[in-house]
Amino acid sequence: EDAPLLEAISARARSLLGHGGGGSGASSDGNDAEAADGFEAQGLANMAWAFATLRVADGPLLEALSSSARRRIAYFDGQNISNMAWSFAKVSFADIRRFFTQS
């Protein structure tokens, strides 16, 4: 029933994560490295949580979220890490272990 809308939202999120831009710009503390693709740690964790809550198991989107999160893992607090882990587990993301390893 909502599949076309969820597919469109997921595709747009993949686009934003894959091509940069579309987020909040520089981070609130001025650390541009954290928000290099426009998303800060909390934004990435919130996006992962939202898609998992809707049970959107879009492999390419989850891979893009994981990749973007790994690049800024130093900026994640305990809540951000917890939300990402829960989100990946909720949708049975096969590469969850890779999120927690160095690339």
Compact overview of the structure:
The protein is built from five helices and no strands.
Major sheet summary line: none
Judged by helices, strands and strand pairing, the structural class is mainly alpha
Cα-to-Cα separation, first versus last residue: 38 Å
- How much helix, percentage-wise, in residues? 55-70%
Query: Count of DSSP E strands?
Result: 0
Indicate the mean pLDDT: 79
Shape: globular
Radius of gyration, taken over Cα atoms and rounded to an integer in Å: 13 Å
How would the blueprint of this fold be written?
Elements: H1 3-19, H2 41-53, H3 59-71, H4 78-90, H5 96-99
Notes on the protein architecture:
By secondary structure, this protein is mostly helical. It has helices at residues 3-19, 41-53, 59-71, 78-90, 96-99. The longest helix has 17 residues, at 3-19. The protein is globular and about 40 Å long. The relative contact order is 0.15.
What are the key terms here?
103 residues, mainly alpha, 5 helices, 58% helix, globular
